[in-house]
Amino acid sequence: MRNPRLLPPDRPGLPASPSSPLFPSLLNVAVLLLASAIGAVAFVAPFFSLETALPGDGGALSHAADAPFFLILLIVICLGAVLLNLSAGQMNTRTVAVLGILTAFNAVLRALPGPGGFNAIFFLPILAGHVYGATFGFLLGSLSLLVSALLGGGVGPWLPFQMFATGWVGMLGALAPSWPRHPRREVLLLAAWGLFLGLLFGAIMNLWFWPFVFRPDQAALYWQPGLGLAGILQRYLPFYLVTSLAWDLWRAGGNALLILFLGLPVLRLLRRFQLRFRFEITPEE
């Protein structure tokens, strides 16, 4: 149910604001499903390989052969989503402009130093996905990583996987319930959600290189061909706890703190723009 306090007064020539999200269409559902399916294939394909990683192999060459293909495919999907929404009238020039501005600003945030594994690049995708919907959050997260990489963040076989994972963070931001009448509760909920998404990002990103690394003295922590799902989980969980959890806690905690301290004004600003997106001038009868 819409919050009447967020809606401007009725004026001649302006229809009532719809209650649907910014990108309310089956088209966007299909785009997200397609992008997510391709991303899932990119992450899990190595687990169907019959080759065992050799000692000394590392993540630097992981996916060196297929990463360019997935990168190009993801860029095409993102640009195609924008064009399709423009042609369908579900995005306009103002929406695209805001997406571009937030993408550029978010790419700059990635360059800001932080302790441990903290990075501020997840703050805006979570909040924008929460306010504008899953498609906007996915586009903002994915394109931010692309722009950041081109600006000096580093282009390598890891890039498409970072784009998929950050896009999913923005997409999942839309799942948090919206409580505009209780903004403090909403911010607390989003902070907890940001904490979870920070840990989830790290757990997913490890999968891009984990099947390609192996240490004989810690064989129980690494993947080997022939393992079923249960065997993979039994090895991956201790690997994650030993190698990644400490870093991911910095990222997750940073997400929560940023949302707690800056979430309320940023949500208000995003919703102020959202009201402008939802209105079209129509001739008076």
In short:
The chain is an all-alpha fold and 285 residues long. The protein is built from 9 helices and no strands.
Features:
Arp2/3 complex 21 kDa subunit ARPC3, 61% helix, mainly alpha, 9 helices
Q: Could you describe the 3D structure shown?
A:
- With 285 residues, the chain is mainly α.
- The chain has nine helices and no strands.
- The chain has one domain: Arp2/3 complex 21 kDa subunit ARPC3, CATH 1.10.1760.
- Helix 2 packs parallel to helix 6 and helix 7 crosses helix 9.
- The protein starts with 25 loop residues before the first helix and ends in an 8-residue tail after the last helix.
- The N terminus and C terminus are likely disordered.
**Portion in helices:** 55-70%
| Overall CATH architecture | Orthogonal Bundle
CATH class: Mainly Alpha
Number of helices: 9
Radius of gyration over C-alpha positions, nearest whole angstrom = 21 Å
What's the β-strand tally?
0
Biggest sheet layout: none
Estimated structural class: mainly alpha
Stretches where pLDDT falls below 50 for ≥5 residues? 1-24, 279-285
Strand content: under 5%
Order of helices and strands: HHHHHHHHH
Count of domain modules? 1
Measure the end-to-end span. 29 Å
Q: What is the averaged pLDDT score?
A: 81
Q: Per the principal axes of the C-alpha atoms, what is the gross shape?
A: globular
CATH domain fold name: Arp2/3 complex 21 kDa subunit ARPC3
